[in-house]
Amino acid sequence: MPVTISQTEIPDVLLIESPVFKDERGFFTEVHSEREWKKAGLDLRFVQDNVSLSARGTLRGLHYQLEPQGQGKFVRVTTGAVFDVAVDLRRGSPTFGKWVGRTLSGENCLAMWIPSGFAHGFVALEDRTYVYYKCTAFWTPELERSLAYDDPAIGIEWPIPATLISPKDARAPRLDSAEYNFEYAK
């Protein structure tokens, strides 16, 4: 099934839309097709799949992993909805420190591709929101880092307030003091 892959305001962060076939039973859609991604010039290898369950107002992030274990993430919501965000942390990038966000939901079946070099996070817009994501590198705790979700220098416009956030994420450093080692490749 052909998918539509489009650039966002940050060209390396992509929005993926798969055809959805609906009938009286419900719907069917492909979540990931290596063949379709390769047609779009994306040759990716995923090594870990994750699922999170969140209540409305739960904010997770902004998370990233340092190189050499930087994680690219293919993010999709199966049930509920999130406002999903990526922040560019690549030194030398024309969009360094900028963010892009989209609403992903079980209804719209949209997905987002966030390459390594970006911090990622989301706020759940509905109760019982399930987020499914595929990663290009294994979780490596010693390389995991967080970025402040409310850093005014980044200025993310979250659509609802964060009412539940982990202590670690609440203490995350701002961009001007965060540790990152990503370089922009033109």
What does this structure look like?
A hairpin with a 6-residue loop joins strand 1 (4-7) and strand 2 (14-17). It contains two helices and 16 strands. The strands form four sheets. A six-stranded antiparallel sheet has the order 1-2-11-7-13-5, with no helix packed on it. Strands 6, 8, 10, 12, 14 and 15 form a six-stranded mixed sheet that branches. With 186 residues, the chain is mainly β. It has one domain: Sandwich (Jelly Rolls), CATH 2.60.120.10. Helices cover 5% and strands 42% of the residues. It has helices at residues 34-39, 167-170; strands spanning 4-7, 14-17, 21-23, 26-28, 48-54, 58-65, 73-79, 81-88, 90-91, 99-105, 110-114, 118-124, 129-135, 144-146, 164-165, 182-183. The mean pLDDT is 94.
Please identify the top-level CATH class.
Answer: Mainly Beta
- Tell the overall outline: globular
Order of helices and strands: EEEEHEEEEEEEEEEEHE
Using DSSP, what is the number of strands?
A: 16
**Second-tier CATH architecture:** Sandwich
> What class, by secondary structure content?
mainly beta
| Main sheet attributes: strand count, strand direction, barrel closure | 6 strands, antiparallel
CATH topology: Jelly Rolls
Q: What gyration radius follows from the Cα positions, in whole Å?
A: 16 Å
What keyword list fits this structure?
186 residues; Jelly Rolls; 6-stranded antiparallel sheet; 6-stranded mixed sheet
Question: Outline of this structure?
Answer:
The chain is mainly beta and 186 residues long. The protein contains two helices and 16 strands. It has one domain: Jelly Rolls.
